[in-house]
Structure formats: C-alpha cells, structure tokens
Write a structure and sequence with these properties.
Shape: globular
Number of strands: 7
Number of domains: 1
Largest sheet: 7 strands, antiparallel
Strand content: over 45%
Radius of gyration: 14 Å
Structural class: mainly beta
Strand order of the largest sheet: 1-2-3-4-5-6-7
Order of helices and strands: EEEEEEE
Length: about 100
C-alpha cells in the first residue's frame, strides 16, 4: 500500500491567478509547506517548490466518477526526494 501521512491542509483562493494556494502542516516536515492548486474542468494540478520538494501532481476525474493521477518530479528536481507516485480516489464528492 504505502505510507500513511496525516496532515492538515488549509486552502484559499487567489483571484489574481485563479488558483488555490495552500499550506500543509504535517508530521514529516518541521515547516509548513506551500502548495498551489490549479483546477480546470476535470483536471487538477498541484505544485510544490520548497527545497528539497520540487514536484507536480497532475490528475483528472473520469466519466465514471473515479480519479487518477500522480506526482512527478519537476525538471532538475532531486528524484531521490521527489519520487514519482500514483494514486486513486474511489469517488467524487459533489457539494
């Protein structure tokens, strides 16, 4: 399966860039980590660039309501820290 990571993520909205900056507080980093979400139609992109983390998550919703995507290191990033991953979320929650 993988390692479970417990974290709290606070997400806001930046109307100037039409993106969602966030701050992640977790047990694996002594410092809160800045992320930026970009949501367009059924695609989600999440970026982190806070050394040594330097990666982008790209995912999308499928017509059946499932989600797939994964993290990839950004060009030039240390791949021993920014390891490519895949993940899946079983269903989409509609408010």
């Amino acid at each position: 399966m993988g390692q479970q990571i417990d974290a709290l993520e606070l997400i806001g909205y930046d109307p100037e860039t039409d993106t969602f900056p966030s701050t992640v507080f977790s047990g694996f980093s002594p410092t809160p980590l800045p992320y930026r979400w970009d949501v367009r139609d059924d695609r989600v992109t999440i970026k982190v660039a806070y050394a040594p983390l330097d990666a982008t998550f790209t995912g999308s919703w499928r017509q059946d309501g499932t989600f797939s995507g994964g993290w990839r290191p950004n060009p030039g990033a240390d791949e021993s820290v920014n390891v490519p991953t895949t993940s899946a979320v079983p269903s989409r929650v509609t408010p």
